[in-house]
Here is the input.
Amino acid sequence: MKTIVAYKSKSGYTKKYAQWIAQELNCDIKENAELSDIINYDVIIYGGGMYAGGFNGAKLITKNLDRLSGKKIVLFAVGSNPGREHEMQPFWNKVLTAEQQKNIGHFYLRGGFDFSRLTKGDKILMKMLKMRLQSLKNPTEDDLGLLAAYDNPVDFSDKANIKDLIEYVLK
Ligand SMILES: Cc1cc2nc3c(=O)[nH]c(=O)nc-3n(C[C@H](O)[C@H](O)[C@H](O)COP(=O)(O)O)c2cc1C
Here is the structure.
């Protein structure tokens, strides 16, 4: 089975997971892929970061599902949130219909957060979020964790997290 890992990564976390997955499967890997780069593969794995509840670059797959029919498709999203079911399910519901979720493997792999590695635009967005978090009367543990990460980058990425995805691809 010809397999490719395609991905988009702004600050390197998704890239790290994409490289681990490609290494484990001994398959091709392509950053910022276009449809023509992936169309000839049997198994297409796509990874992108979570940005304000969106899935960076996933339209490459979700807008082209008709042209990719018959292929095994696997998605992985990389964010800084802890990956709790009640937070991730609404995200996946925005990306895929319930029917698509049955046929398309979808995984969350926890990345990290490094303010210094953000683009100018993302720095502005995150400064606005910081002000909002600082003004909260009752911040949650996650809010406080994110606030702390502005000064000290956090990296939760771990090769062990790709285990379920690899099993899904190989089964
Ligand atoms: C503007 C902005 C918005 C973000 N929104 C989310 C989010 O909604 N959920 C989440 O879990 N992480 C969010 N993050 C954190 C990124 O998803 C996280 O840093 C991820 O590891 C980035 O992966 P990448 O470097 O491969 O793009 C956000 C980060 C930025 C800069």
In short: The mean pLDDT is 96.
